Amino acid sequence: MTENFKILTKYIKDMSSETPDIETFLFVKDNISKYQLNIDISSRPLKNKMVEVNTTLKFEDKEESKKKSYFEIVYASIVRINDEVKEKKDFQKIILCDVPTAIYPDLETSFLNLLHNSGHPGIKLEKKIDFQKLYEERFN
């Protein structure tokens, strides 16, 4: 099977780590296990069958708390879609499943580096994100 797309380039489009003060840092250090990872994938068409796919990871505390840190990375991939791809569902699968799966190892490394360099060296992402499963849950 030939790939229906080619990743032309990928890069960190935006990265943010926000911890307002030392009290917050110490509070978060003790409570970071409550933080949740959220994923968002967006895209915008470019010219010549190219698409910009932005995969965003946010690591944040969903509970009401005055003391919290915020971590986010937006990882952009510029992708060329093959001419054979005509169906909307095929485009959706490429953008929501195939591209994020292909770039995830680099995205995960960059995101963990952000967390570690923000003073949380023990953080690990417990399980790999299964974009195929997320895609199937959304469209089935």
Architecture overview:
It is a single chain. With 140 residues, the protein is an alpha+beta fold. It has a single domain (5-139), classed as SecB-like (Bacterial Protein-export protein SecB, Roll), CATH 3.10.420. 35% of the residues lie in helices and 34% in strands. The protein has three helices and four strands; from the N terminus they run βαβββαα. It has helices spanning 22-31, 88-117, 131-139, and strands at 5-18, 36-45, 50-60, 70-81. A four-stranded antiparallel beta sheet has the order 1-4-3-2. A hairpin with a 4-residue loop joins strand 2 and strand 3. Helix 2 packs across helix 3. The radius of gyration is 17 Å and the shape is elongated. The mean pLDDT is 92.
Strand content range: 25-35%
Tell me the series of helices and strands, N- to C-terminal.
Answer: EHEEEHH
Helix content: 25-40%
Total domain count? 1
